[in-house]
Phenylacetate-CoA oxygenase subunit PaaA (Terrabacter tumescens), 315 residues
Amino acid sequence: QREAIGSDFDALIAADQRIEPRDAMPDTYRETLIRQIAQHAHSEIIGMQPEGNWITRAPSLRRKAILIAKVQDEAGHGLYLYSAAETLGVDRQELLDRLHDGKQKYSSIFNYPTLTWADCGAIGWLVDGAAIMNQVPLCRCSYGPYARAMIRVCKEESFHQRQGFEILWTLMRGTEAQQAMAQDAADRWWWPALAMFGPPDTGEAAKGGHTEQSMAWGIKRFSNDDLRQKFVDMMVPQAEKLGIVLPDPHLRWNEERGHYDFGEIDWDEFWQVLRGDGPCNAERIEHRRRAHDEGAWVREAANAYAAKQTIRENE
Ligand code: ACO
């Protein structure tokens, strides 16, 4: 029977068809998806914190309304993604427990602080820009529920990126102090945004990585380095339009390759953040645990309501 499962699954993957929850799939495919989708969901809800920090201090009513909507969108993305993970037979509570116990990761990028209002612009422009670059190909992921969730997520992310660009655009046309604030935010977020794409495809760091297998299964469509390069190529002209100087002396157009060359990413810092030693790791998890505990009554009320509805429907 195992062979039959294998051949159906392999045929669907070879034909670039979608795998659906009811289809038989190898355990390793299921585990890889649970790992990636859970990490993605955790990133969305932890990602609410850095910008949530500025909701009370947004510089105008318009900016505040946009920021609230954006942070709420991120909560929504987390919910679609937890639902997609649940179709693989894992329980949402179990995933949250793994996040709270530090057993499952979330994106490195959300362990950096938002020191000024310009950081909300830099997050929208750079972090959401990187997220789109990484997530548009996931709309073609071989696992149906994940791919479909990504379509709406990507539409919302592109709005997020434009609002970030517009914050920086406004600051760069403001006073000298505002321009300096925008430049400083870009200086601090550029390198962590490049690291977001994950470890390089070659060398020591690539050993034990998942890219090769995930590409063979049609989960990932591009390697980490390929997406990082596409991101750099997209962002350099945008930085020029903004009048922001990207903090990399090695950044230059390479005519032969048809791409921008760029400098070395500090991978020691990346692994340090993944180990839990980034600037805000402890604060992010502590806040998340507290929010979860304080929300217990909402979950209890929702369950009690659902139970009452079920009794009524069966009467
Ligand atoms: N932050 C934290 N961990 C990371 C990051 C990162 N930026 N990049 C890679 N890793 C981890 C991987 O999870 C893996 O760890 P594990 O084996 O313990 O699970 C390890 O580093 C090796 O990396 P890869 O082999 O490249 O792992 P993978 O094939 O899963 O690729 C990637 C990583 C590109 C992030 C992929 O999982 C992905 O596309 N995920 C969906 C998108 C996502 O999660 N985005 C989150 C940020 S965007 C946002 O929320 C706005």
User: Anything to note?
Assistant: The mean pLDDT is 96. Residues 35-36, 39-40, 43-44, 47, 105, 107-108, 131, 134, 196-199, 209-211, 214, 220, 224, 274 surround acetyl coenzyme *A (CB under 6 Å).
